[in-house]
Amino acid sequence: MIDALAQILGFFLDFIFNFVYNILPVGSLGISIIAFTILVRLLMIPLMVKQQSSLKKMQLIQPELQKIQEKYKNKKDPDSQMQMNIEMREFYKKNNVSPFGGCLPLFIQMPIFIALFRVLRSVNTYISKLQELYYDLATQIVSADGYQQILRDVLANNKRITINKVEETVLSSAEGLQTILSQVSTNEWSRLSESLGTISNNLIEQKNNIEYFFGISLVDSPADLLSQGITATVLLVVILFPLLSALTTFISSKLISSNQQQQKNDQAEQIQKSMNMFLPIMTGMMAFSLPAGLGIYWIVSNIIQIIQQLAINKFMDKSGEGE
User: Which of 33, 195, 220, 230 is the most exposed place for a label (fewest CB within 10 A)?
Assistant: First the structure.
């Protein structure tokens, strides 16, 4: 299922990229990721509306549900618990509310975002122009004498590729080599180019024109950039990308959890508070260690989600949704 979703999303990303590239080749990957993120978030609006509508309805019926639960508070025998469940089911049915209505859209979104993660982590697999470019680069690499040993030496410290475990068959052909080249950092590309002497500067320039966005390589992680030397741009990316990813995730999580506030008991509230702290920290750490293109996706996606959440809440409050 995830593979199929990734292929579908990859098709749309490729379409957007080709459109952008034909107009503005320089920075086309960054522009495409932003446009793609906006498109995905817009397509998510119906799911978000349904989720918030279900949560609002659940909030309205909470007092009556609590009365049913209070009625059976001290009755822990199986028959009483069964009767309580029957009464609650009938109450849900009477009010046309599903207790899982707020969760279903989230379950639908999860595989979509997992597939998105896969696409954006390996954009050269899904964008035809980058596929061609990386294949041409791989072809030039395999034409050099002793290229396999040079690859192993240059990529020895690459945290995304355990080069010593890569099979000989993968490295022995341009098709196989192409699959791992997207994990090579800018600094490693420079070393490869110097060591091999067979890589065209024109191809490297095309690659950089596509993958750089406002002076930032979107295939490098902030951690990669930090290892290449400290500059003002590097410091900005290293600090800003993880920080904005974490901050926007926190705000987005708080907005969502505030809509569920009236539904929570003490235990659920503690779990939600923990999640509101854990998710931003995890997102910030991932934004530091994964390609900057994913950081842009997270930041833009979270900002759009925050705007959507505020707009949906305002609309529902005005229209009296759930009453």
Answer: 230
